[in-house]
Amino acid sequence: MASQKLLDELNKAIAMDLRATIQYMWQHVMVLGVEGVAVNNVFKEIAMQEMKHSESFADRLYYLGGIPTTTPMDIKVGKTLKEMVELDLKAENESIDLCKKIIKIAVEENDPTTRLLTEKILEETEEHADKFKRILGAR
Description:
The protein has helices at residues 4-30, 33-63, 81-108, 112-136. By secondary structure, the protein is an all-alpha fold. The chain has a single domain (4-136), classed as Ferritin, core subunit, four-helix bundle (Ferritin). Helix 1 packs antiparallel against helix 3. The longest helix is centred in the middle third of the chain and has 31 residues, at 33-63. It starts with a helix and ends with a helix. The model has no long low-confidence stretch (mean pLDDT 95).
């Protein structure tokens, strides 16, 4: 049986991914201009991946006996393209930290399924962060 700590962290991951799904999809709709055209599909593509992440975490949480949240974390869309991408990079970095925490708990609780699932999501989340860094011109 999973600990309440693991269930709580999985629910936090769901809330983060729900936030990202909504945040990035709104940015996809709102971004304008030449710069916007260049990143428009990045927002949409990552939003869809985030939706899959929240579904995967929810499936796992429910299997472990928890009830998945339906409430996203605070959504921060931003007003300019730069602000949008900075907010998105911050959200991805928070998600990376949380994935690492969930992996650590899963290892401590001898739960290889949750560990493997979260490692896969962590890899994709790091790719998202890298895309946002590249858009910002950072490395």
